[in-house]
Structure to design on (820 residues):
């Protein structure tokens, strides 16, 4: 019997809100390793000068090319969260996953030379867990000063895009209704 | 009072990389040494580090544009951490514009990348035999001859070319433009396209050393002394830094204040002839700027505020289609109201000329305003310029600005080194009283406040170590908020103490270095001290840190005294005493000399400097741990 496919959430950044401040990168490395080292981050800020800013992290692709690309079979998809998990024992740092990723969001850890992929902070250090929250949650979202980063699934994104599109396409009609 | 020496240093300190590079540009030799833990404890970072190095290592009396000047890059313990606005750096030297202590602070990505490359401070001496740029690529440090690569190019293209060379869009590059290369005393240093270490002509010092640019990148991480507590506090500060305390910097940006200052008669119009303008109500204000022109706000590395307001001119504009400029209030004043200009695209164009070709846009704008003012009064003419330049000029203002920046024609020859020099040069040509039109203190052009009705800030701005400046103590708030009677001269010592209090905190902020926009995010000075301890591990308190702020201000003051400073140098331009506004709430008001001098003495007294001469006393020097200064305050000259 076919089961309903699970819908996974991933990190999404609104370029209209993102100011390019790099806080997400810094905190990512800090909560995982205890030091500020954005090269070891799992989220990456991109600035196209002068005005465009965004940050990118793993999009949790279906049939993810990084998994297929890995000759060591070190990557697998967590069926519950959709996150791409890396088996550090198997990862030999060949970088095929980086080449396979369409979004350029996989990187290497400077010291361990193992692949880094956003796991929604499932592996963040325990001492940095906010006692008021009591569990691991994406810290880039927690610190983003502009609330530009959020955790969404494709259905939510689709819904928001539909609303945006309708506003764009039928803005005048909507205003007409509202003014009546 | 507890002293810095009583603050126990732990075995390991964090935040600071403690790496000092010494670059001898003459020989090309680059040496590394370690900044001692005591040095870090006592001089904090940025401004403090440089105050000590320039006192110790700069030979008194040297010409600021000679190889003997010492040029310092310095930062504190915070870059790369998520402390809001941590990615700041400072550049320091003897200023060619003032002949005194020169300093300029910027941010963007530079502080963070320099820290990743392991740098805390770089001291440049000598002069390279040919144009070079310095690369600090982790532990690789080398000079690249660049005569055929970037010399002669604007800051924006220089940044692009060097980034391209490294195939790294995140390489941090600070550079000078053609203005710095030709050693304009107003020359700035640009990084990340829109960020400038603008004031006091530090770009000219780089140019005099044949140093076109510095590029940083690195792969070193930064650990902090108390990570869990730091993370908790930093998260709180990030939240607060995006709350009411910084709303004005985020929403409309610094131009938010134009309307209120215009109402108080404090916003400079037409080179400070007036303090209020109907066009500020209708056109030149933060609301109109944001509604009609701003397309994006961007942030420096690790900044929660994002004050950088980017304006874009539509592609249909006949003269400047698609031009993008980074706008703040000082530039709206300099190229807008001070020049009697209410045309936004002209303001934006002038800003991009300054940022790209490399002059300080405050000094540049104010010097242009002086030219318009002189033109109105017939002291310069169409025969001199080849075109007209009354207040309200647009295309001619852009033309004049470019010639001034690049040192071309009459504008370049007369105005290319700032307003004070322009006054002197015109008077040498027989144009009497031209210096009256120069809105400068110690040679540095005034920021966006009109002092006619600001008796406290008249002192605060005049005593600023680097020349006319609102960021050494922010005493304009004492007038704007009504802390003291802004038209009166009572309570001289109380006012002096208020200015000193602000000045000590500001000196600390400039040493940390963080952004003054975050001053309000800390619950109190103790919390600002706490963050220092959590990062570095050095258990300073607010009391011991503020004492260091006092020591840093006093030491840089001693630098000025040694360069020939006298009490007369702490004085606003004559216009504020002699020519009143003709309209608005400050109509008919001028500063009074006697009252001003009383307040100035009150400030010196509050600082425990000699009340009459304004020179720090031996007793005060001892109290601040500045014993090494005693007996060395004889004037060696160099003041312009």
């Amino acid at each position: 019997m076919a089961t309903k496919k699970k819908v996974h959430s991933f990190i999404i950044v609104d370029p209209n809100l993102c100011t390019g401040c790099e806080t997400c990168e810094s905190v990512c490395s800090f909560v995982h390793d205890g030091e500020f080292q954005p090269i070891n981050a799992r989220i990456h800020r991109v600035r196209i000068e002068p005005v465009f800013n965004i940050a990118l992290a793993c999009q949790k692709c279906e049939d993810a090319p990084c998994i297929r690309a890995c000759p060591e079979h070190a990557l697998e998809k967590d069926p519950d969260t959709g996150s791409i998990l890396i088996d550090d024992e198997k990862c030999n740092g060949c970088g095929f996953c980086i080449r396979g990723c369409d979004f350029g969001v996989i990187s290497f850890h400077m010291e361990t030379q193992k692949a880094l992929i956003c796991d929604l902070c499932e592996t963040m250090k325990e001492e940095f867990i906010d006692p008021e929250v009591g569990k691991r949650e994406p810290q880039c979202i927690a610190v983003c000063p502009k609330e530009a980063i959020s955790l969404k699934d494709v259905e939510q994104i689709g819904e928001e895009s539909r609303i945006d599109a309708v506003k764009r396409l039928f803005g005048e009609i909507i205003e007409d209704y509202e003014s009546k | 009072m507890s002293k810095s020496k009583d603050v126990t240093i732990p075995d390991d300190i964090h935040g600071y990389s403690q790496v000092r590079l010494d670059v001898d540009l003459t020989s090309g030799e680059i040496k590394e040494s370690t900044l001692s833990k005591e040095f870090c404890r006592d001089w904090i970072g940025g401004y403090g580090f440089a105050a000590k190095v320039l006192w110790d290592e700069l030979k008194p009396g040297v010409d600021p544009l000679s190889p003997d000047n010492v040029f310092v890059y310095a930062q504190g313990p915070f870059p790369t951490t998520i402390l809001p606005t941590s990615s700041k750096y400072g550049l320091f030297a003897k200023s060619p514009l003032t002949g005194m202590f020169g300093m300029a602070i910027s941010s963007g990505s530079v502080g963070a990348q320099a820290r990743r490359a392991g740098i805390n401070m770089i001291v440049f001496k000598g002069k390279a035999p040919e144009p070079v740029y310095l690369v600090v690529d982790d532990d690789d440090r080398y000079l690249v001859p660049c005569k055929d690569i970037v010399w002669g190019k604007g800051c924006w293209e220089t940044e692009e070319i060097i980034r391209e060379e490294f195939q790294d869009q995140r390489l941090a590059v600070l550079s000078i433009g053609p203005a710095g290369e030709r050693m304009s005393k107003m020359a700035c240093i640009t990084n990340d396209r829109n960020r400038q270490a603008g004031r006091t002509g530090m770009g000219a010092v780089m140019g005099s050393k044949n140093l076109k640019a510095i590029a940083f990148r690195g792969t070193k991480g930064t650990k902090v002394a108390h990570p869990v507590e730091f993370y908790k506090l930093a998260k709180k500060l990030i939240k607060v830094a995006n709350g009411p305390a910084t709303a004005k910097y985020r929403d409309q940006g610094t131009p938010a204040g134009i309307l209120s200052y215009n109402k108080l008669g404090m916003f400079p119009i037409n080179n400070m002839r007036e303090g209020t303008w109907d066009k500020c109500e209708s056109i030149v204000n933060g609301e109109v700027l944001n509604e009609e022109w701003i397309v994006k706000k961007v942030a420096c590395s690790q900044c929660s505020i994002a004050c950088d307001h980017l304006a874009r001119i539509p592609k249909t504009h006949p003269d400047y289609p698609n031009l993008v400029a980074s706008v703040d209030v000082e530039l709206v004043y300099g190229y807008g109201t001070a020049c009697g200009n209410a045309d936004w695209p002209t303001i934006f164009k002038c800003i991009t000329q300054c940022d790209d070709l490399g002059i300080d846009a405050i000094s540049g704008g104010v010097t242009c305003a002086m030219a318009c003012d002189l033109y109105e009064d017939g002291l310069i003419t169409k025969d001199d310029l080849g075109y007209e330049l009354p207040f309200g000029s647009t295309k001619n203002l852009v033309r004049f600005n470019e010639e001034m920046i690049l040192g071309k024609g009459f504008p370049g020859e007369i105005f290319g080194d700032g307003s004070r020099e322009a006054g002197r040069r015109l008077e040498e040509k027989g144009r009497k009283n031209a210096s009256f039109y120069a809105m400068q203190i110690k040679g540095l052009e005034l920021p966006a406040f009109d002092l006619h009705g600001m008796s406290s800030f008249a002192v605060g701005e005049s005593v600023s170590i680097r020349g006319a400046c609102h960021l050494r103590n922010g005493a304009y708030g004492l007038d704007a908020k009504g802390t003291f009677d802004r038209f009166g001269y009572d309570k001289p010592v109380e006012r002096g103490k208020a200015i000193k209090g602000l000045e000590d905190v500001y000196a600390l902020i400039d040493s940390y270095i963080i952004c003054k926009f975050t001053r309000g995010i800390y619950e109190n000075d103790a919390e600002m001290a706490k963050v220092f301890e959590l990062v570095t591990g050095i258990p300073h308190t607010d009391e011991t840190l503020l004492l260091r702020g006092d020591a840093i201000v006093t030491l840089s003051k001693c630098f000025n005294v040694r360069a020939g400073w006298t009490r007369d140098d702490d004085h606003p331009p004559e216009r504020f005493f002699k020519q009143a506004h003709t309209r608005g709430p400050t109509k008919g008001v001028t500063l009074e000399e006697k009252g001003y001098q009383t307040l100035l003495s009150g400030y010196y007294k509050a600082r425990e400097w000699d009340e009459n001469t304004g020179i720090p006393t031996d007793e005060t020097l001892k109290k601040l741990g500045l014993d090494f200064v005693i007996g060395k305050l004889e004037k060696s000259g160099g003041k312009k």
